[in-house]
Design a protein that fits this description.
- 68% of the residues lie in helices and 0% in strands.
- With 350 residues, the chain is mainly α.
- The chain has one domain.
């Protein structure tokens, strides 16, 4: 009698796994028309990004192309996000087009601020929604790169609007709106909190606690911190500016970017990984609003963002190795499910 060797049991991999969220039928039934629409949208995104980049990089381009480029990017972000979330174009795209047109024609301060907010919010959320599940370290790093590229296009678009806003209020408004929008979309994709495992729920609660502690501590230090502690932080920031020409942003390092790495990795196993990506929107929101004030130095913001990315990715990979590790012998003996699948990057998720 032969003795069956131990080890992890695997499901039949010859049958591909199905996507676990129902999707609507395609709006454009013709593959040719759908491909043309994607090509036009991508071309508009590239052209708009190049035009908006002239607001940050001095290349001798005329200033009049900056706001039209930002308007093009705002409409592209809305179209892409509505498509990715499975929404109705006729409900959301026409108001965005009207806002872009009236803002360019009237150049009213309130309209400029509204357009900048919509641009920052949609870019921050779409940069996270456009990601795909990543089962490997290389894949998670690639998805991180895709997110950063999209978010940076939103950053230059906000800078190109050159809206007269208060940075603190603008940042809070964008952060709150982006979080609300991300939670709404993820609730639909993740089936709410139903079916979330104990480990995933603990991760979600842990990340939420980190958010609260970071925001509460930073607010406490600014308002009630001792003069010695305030001076210490101020001197540390000044030293880092003089030495490294940039200062990492704690929200991105300890929360936004690690959540992005962990979220796309966990999504390859369970769709509840979307809930971790809600907190990644905090990092992309900070990135898209970093150049909203005309007095911001692009070189300083670029170096600060780079340092935040390096530290955030490093921390994210450490947390990823702990989250995805099988800690018990019971977990090692269970049936290993196939990798979770999702529609393509340019296909709707709902």
């Amino acid at each position: 009698m032969s003795i069956q060797q131990g080890g992890r049991r695997r499901l039949d991999s010859s049958v591909p796994a199905d996507y676990d969220v129902p999707t609507r039928t395609p709006r454009l039934s013709s593959p040719t028309v759908a491909g043309a629409a994607i090509t036009v949208t991508f071309a508009a995104w590239v052209v708009g990004t190049v035009g908006a980049l002239t607001a940050v990089v001095a290349v001798g381009a005329p200033e009049w192309i900056q706001r039209p480029s930002a308007a093009v990017l705002m409409v592209v972000f809305v179209v892409a996000l509505v498509h990715r979330g499975g929404g109705h174009m006729r409900l959301w795209v026409p108001p965005a087009v009207m806002l872009a047109a009236f803002t360019l024609l009237l150049e009213n301060n309130s309209l400029l601020a509204s357009a900048a907010v919509l641009t920052a919010v949609t870019a921050a959320v779409w940069s996270v929604m456009v990601t795909r599940p990543a089962a490997s370290v290389v894949g998670s790093l690639a998805e991180f790169g895709v997110t950063i590229v999209v978010a940076l296009s939103g950053t230059v678009a906000v800078a190109a609007w050159n809206a007269p806003v208060n940075y603190q209020r603008f940042n809070i408004l964008v952060l709150g709106a982006a979080l609300a929008l991300a939670i709404t979309l993820v609730w639909r994709l993740g089936a709410g909190l139903h079916g979330m495992g104990r480990q995933n729920f603990a991760i979600l609660v842990g990340v939420a606690v980190v958010v609260i502690l970071l925001l509460a501590y930073s607010s406490f230090v600014r308002t009630h911190g001792s003069q010695t502690l305030t001076d210490l932080f101020t001197e540390l920031v000044i030293w880092m500016r003089e030495t490294f020409r940039g200062v990492p942003r704690p929200v991105e390092v300890f929360l936004g970017f690690p959540a992005l790495i962990v979220g796309v990795s966990l999504r390859s196993q369970r769709r509840e990984g979307w809930w971790i990506l809600v907190f990644a929107v905090i990092g992309t929101s900070v990135l898209t609003t970093s150049l909203v004030t005309p007095g911001a130095f692009p070189s300083y913001i670029a170096l600060s963002s780079l340092y935040s990315m390096v530290l955030g990715v490093g921390l994210g990979l450490i947390v990823r190795s702990r989250v995805l590790a099988r800690r018990t012998s019971r977990a090692a003996r269970q049936v290993e499910p196939p990798s979770r699948v999702e529609p393509g990057r340019l296909a709707p998720l709902k």
